[in-house]
């Protein structure tokens, strides 16, 4: 059919306009084609690719005929929404520079992280308090360098189970009904604490476990 159309054009030019004429046609009508179908050439012959639905594009492949297909996106990463004459790509949640919320489960940040707006707040969700809410560990894991307990509202340095408001090293027991700051050795046998001693005096106390008895000194 293509060859017949081409020959007819040549005859029209030759008869009506002369052999050197280059006429411009306002439109060409070909019969036998589907309305709104896309055309492509196979060995010089026009072939219908079909009618595209919302969001479909002709997608080529080296050495093969193009096909009509849409952009499918990737689950939980890129969302593709086809429209009438359009395709909209988006992410499952706002990640632009002005976004107010970004939530992921079990996120791992491998590089440096900066929180702007002149402040950084880490707060558990309602009912989500944890004795290990925030931790800083070395590469080997184990006892955290820093542990923040939002259940008891305590902080441990080198301690994952602080029994006082702030514990550096291990907890100290036996003496002192009230302790605000504890600096203990790694075994909890001796150290200093700021709080209330045996005689209910507030101050710095030194405490040591040993044989034959437990000793305490007040400063």
Structural features, described:
The structure is a single chain. The protein is mainly β and 219 residues long. The chain folds into two domains: 74 residues, no CATH class; 85 residues, no CATH class. 7% of the residues lie in helices and 33% in strands. The protein contains one helix and 14 strands, in the order αββββββββββββββ. Strand 3 and strand 4 form a beta hairpin. The longest helix has 16 residues. About 2% of the residues have low confidence.
- Based on Cα principal axes, name the global outline: rod-shaped
Q: Please state how the strands of the largest beta sheet are arranged side by side.
A: 7-8-9-10-11-12-13-14
| Helix-strand topology string | HEEEEEEEEEEEEEE
CA distance, first residue to last residue: 108 Å
Describe the structure concisely for a colleague.
This protein has 219 residues and is mainly beta. The chain has one helix and 14 strands. The protein folds into two domains: 2-55 and 71-90, no CATH class; 134-218, no CATH class.
List keywords for this structure.
14 strands, 2 domains, 219 residues, single chain, two-stranded antiparallel sheet, eight-stranded mixed β-sheet, 33% strand, mainly beta, 1 helix
Write the layout of secondary structure elements.
Layout lengths: L1 H16 L19 E6 L2 E7 L5 E5 L2 E6 L9 E5 L2 E5 L43 E3 L9 E4 L4 E4 L8 E3 L9 E7 L5 E7 L5 E7 L6 E4 L1
Parallel strand pairs: 9-10, 10-11
Antiparallel strand pairs: 1-2, 3-4, 5-6, 7-8, 8-9, 11-12, 12-13, 13-14
């Amino acid at each position: 059919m293509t060859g017949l159309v081409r020959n007819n054009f040549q005859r029209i030019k030759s008869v009506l306009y002369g052999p050197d004429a280059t006429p411009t046609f306002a439109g060409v009508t070909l019969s036998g084609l589907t309305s709104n179908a896309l055309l492509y050439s196979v060995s010089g012959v026009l072939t219908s690719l079909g009618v595209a639905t919302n969001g479909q594009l002709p997608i080529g492949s080296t050495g093969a005929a193009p096909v009509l297909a849409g952009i499918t996106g990737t689950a939980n990463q890129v969302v593709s929404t086809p429209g009438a004459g359009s395709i909209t790509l988006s992410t499952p949640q706002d990640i632009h520079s002005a976004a107010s919320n970004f939530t992921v489960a079990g996120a791992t940040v491998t590089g440096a992280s900066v929180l702007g707006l002149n402040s950084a707040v880490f707060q558990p969700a309602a009912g989500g308090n944890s004795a290990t809410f925030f931790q800083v560990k070395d590469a080997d894991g184990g006892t955290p360098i820093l542990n923040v307990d939002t259940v008891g509202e305590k902080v441990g340095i080198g301690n994952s189970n602080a029994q006082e408001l702030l514990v550096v090293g291990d907890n100290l027991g036996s003496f002192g009904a009230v302790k605000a700051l504890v600096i203990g050795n790694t075994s909890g046998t001796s150290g200093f604490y700021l709080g209330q001693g045996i005689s209910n005096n507030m101050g710095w106390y030194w405490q040591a476990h040993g044989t034959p008895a437990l000793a305490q000194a007040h400063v």
